[in-house]
Amino acid sequence: MIQAAVPLALMRRLPFFYGWIILACACAAAIARGGPAVATMSIFVEPMTREFGWSRTAMSGAVSLGGVLAAISSPMVGALLDRSGARAILCAAVLTTGVTLAALSQIHSLLAFYLLFCIARLNFAGPFDIGIYGAINSWFVARRAFASSIVAVTQLAGLIVVPLVGHVVMQHADWRSAWVVIGVLVLVVGLIPNWLLMVRRPEDMGLAPDGAIAASDAPDKGAAASATPVPPEPAFTRAQALRTRAFWMLSLFVLMAYPIQAGMSLHQAAHLIECGLSPTAAVSAVAIFSLGTAISAVAFGNAGRWISVRMALAISGVLLSASALVTAIVTTPLMGTMSAILFGFGLGALQTVLPVAWADYFGRKNFGAIRGVALTFQVTAQACGPLLSGVLRDWTGTYVVSLIVFAGLGLLAAMAALLIRQPSFDDGGETSLASPHDLPPQEKTS
Predict the structure, then answer these.
(1) CATH class of 18-200+235-427
(2) pLDDT tens across 138-164, in order?
């Protein structure tokens, strides 16, 4: 086990639950994750394709290839999470991402762009996701949805700040300088807190998730913790999870939803400019979509007591479908704002509820191994979205056809979500207990 740089004895004397420090570290990593995000990449599409003469398909291919590499490596990264914890994964991801993004300032060929950006994109799609949510799910159970919503909001703050920082730098210098600044920003924000303060799990400090005192500890050792009870949770192995219907229906939902997320995010600004909006209005729409995602994340992070996980996922699919349809017919800045808000609401629900669903349905004991396999489907779907948008745009001259396809995928995702059910012992798990966020009170008694 890799220990944090600050002694655990010092950490234990804090007057509050150390999980909130873990949440802050995860949020720092979530901001750093914005460096290779498609929202950030979208502001580089126009200036880089103009300078080098690359097609949109060629540039989108780097995002897709990075996703494919992440799909291949995610099962190994997930197993590493269960063995070593989130600290090693997040520090390595932040360090390599910051260095490769800054190095993009020196490229002069498509091959060099692919080599560097694919490394950063691999980290975004695999290690960042597994490390961030692995840390959150290890430290929180009853408060998991709330913690996940905070991470989602912070990540969206990164998706507002990082593209805007890059845009401002480009306005005063050029796109090469923007990559340098973004790379340095990733290193400063993401590396230091996770290197110094990240701890693998609460049991390493004599605590239990959500601030309860670990059963093996004397009461006086847990003085800094609250008496929050820890609800029972499932404990599926990877092999057991793969035999459940819930795993495959969640995976089907992911395969339908994530091409929309990645495909629309990457080409959003370019499409709005082609629809007649100014570059400033297009960048503002990207920021509005990020703000809408943050608002939605907070709402769905606190909605577990009223709606089930599967219903929340279905709502996200419907919102993503509606956003694609509205985006396809944008003609004014107002319509661009409407489409961005719908897209943000759908994406906020998706990013908040989906990590909670995986942990709630299958438990935290083998979360990394299970999430690593599931992430293969997610990053493959994310890889297909930008490539589909780029190919159809180059073929038809507009993004309208791809947006219509995305609208259909959103509806299919909603239908898949409604078919998800809590896995039981008969499916191969070690427990038949329902997850803390699976069903609202009115459904639990039905």
Answers:
(1) mainly alpha
(2) 899 888 888 988 998 898 788 788 988
